[in-house]
Amino acid sequence: MNDATPTDGELVRRTAAGDCDAFARLYDRYARLVRTVAGDAGPSLAEDITHDVFLRAYRSIATLRDAERFAPWLVGIARRVVQETRRRNRTREPLPDDLADGRAAEHDIDGADEAAYMLALVARLPEEERRAIQFFFLNGRDGNETARLLGRSRSGTYALITRAVGTLARWMGADRPAGEVPQ
């Protein structure tokens, strides 16, 4: 691979050797993904969590055993920081993105590679489609609540979600676009 598009592994090795520009490239490549994961703790906290995740990653990058697996490793750090933030805030007022019945949205760590891949694809979507997927699927909001948060009609929201799901299906190599969005 040429220097214009180095692999994650190359950037990780260069960062561990003291190249700050290499880490800046990793940040540029994955900041949107980390913000998506961090959004589960609430939109107002996402930016702070993102900074904390990258600071932790930078400080411990030399401990990463497989440099090519930077993205799943980074998502793992992001999940931990989100859980810590939720735990810290439970003694305070509830986070705005908590589910109505009080259950915190916990992530299943099985299939972390698949989840990281899917989140990386979601992070590549246009902003409004990414937010629709995040609210509807990742945060478990219903169609009406997602539409309200996006400032769209319910039918417009479902059209947006359907378009985003179709794009994700194409990117994943599906033979045909995804079916209807659940109501």
CATH class of the largest domain: Mainly Alpha
Structural class: mainly alpha
CATH topology of the largest domain: Rna Polymerase Sigma Factor, Chain: A
Span between termini: 45 Å
Please give the share of residues in helix.
55-70%
Sheet bearing the most strands, described? none
The tally of domains stands at: 2
Rg is 17 Å
Query: How many β-strand runs?
Result: 0
Strand percentage, roughly?
A: under 5%
By CATH, the architecture of the largest domain is named Orthogonal Bundle
What integer is the average pLDDT? 78
Question: Which runs of at least 5 residues are low in confidence (pLDDT < 50)?
Answer: 92-110, 175-183
Total helical segments: 8
Query: What would the principal axes of the Cα set say about the shape?
Result: globular
* CATH homologous superfamily designation of the largest domain: RNA polymerase sigma factor, region 2, helix turn helix motif
The helix/strand order is HHHHHHHH
Please tell me about this protein's structure:
The protein has 183 residues and is an all-alpha fold. It is globular, with a radius of gyration of 17 Å. The chain has 2 domains: 1-110, Rna Polymerase Sigma Factor, Chain: A (Orthogonal Bundle); 125-183, Arc Repressor Mutant, subunit A (Orthogonal Bundle). The N and C termini lie far apart (45 Å). The protein has helices at residues 8-16, 20-38, 46-60, 70-90, 112-124, 127-138, 143-150, 154-171. 27% of the residues are buried. Mean pLDDT is 78; it is low at 92-110 and 175-183. α3 (46-60) crosses α4.
Overview features:
globular; WH-like_DNA-bd_sf; DNA binding; 8 helices; mainly alpha; transcription; RNA_pol_sigma-70-like; 183 residues; Arc Repressor Mutant, subunit A
